[in-house]
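sry for the spam today, last one i promise. struct tokens for design, 73 residues
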């Protein structure tokens, strides 16, 4: 759950992604999807990778990244 302070701010937030939560390092309104680059408002952020430390806009973006990772290894 994000506190009021963490949601405030303008522009892009800096976030550390954990297993079941996230920590806002620099307040902002949104983060960018690691696959599509689309802005994701912090209030609706649901998908991220702890290992890659990146957010995803939706489950489809997660699948794209997983396919890319499986081809690389």
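last one done:
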């Amino acid at each position: 759950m994000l506190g009021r302070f963490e949601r405030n701010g303008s522009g892009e937030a800096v976030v550390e992604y954990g297993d079941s939560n996230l920590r806002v390092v620099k307040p902002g309104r949104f983060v960018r999807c690691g696959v599509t680059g689309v802005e994701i408002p912090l209030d609706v952020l649901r998908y991220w990778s702890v290992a890659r430390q990146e957010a995803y806009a939706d489950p489809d973006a997660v699948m794209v990244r997983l396919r890319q990772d499986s081809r690389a290894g």
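Strands lie at 14-17, 22-26, 30-32, 39-41, 47-49, 54-56. ok im logging off now
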